[in-house]
Model the fold of this input.
Amino acid sequence: MRMSEQISAFLDMLRETPSMCRTAQEDETRSDRETQDILHWFENYGYHASDAEIVRVARALSLVRRRRRQAKDARNVLHPVAEWVAKSENAQKSMERLLGDVRKAEKATENKHYMDRTDIMAQTLETPDEEE
Done:
């Protein structure tokens, strides 16, 4: 992978992290609300529900709690990066300039051809090897 691709991927990650963090927070909040709905169902209807209904609702609660845990874990990991991104606008701009400089240097090396400065190669290749 080229250096510019690595820098670009890092910048993309920085740009996407705040949105990903918000999404994780929203998923966690939604799961909290779903949990409360399920608990209220148990509180209000659980004694009158069929066994099949109770099993279905219990499975739903299990799934909701797993989704909440995944969202919370993601938010906990993403939050420090999102905070840094919010505070480090100058660093990001500096990295974008760096990316431009690296891309320019990579482009300059793509079509680079070496031009001989002396005639040593021509002389060497024209002269047959002398056998002793």
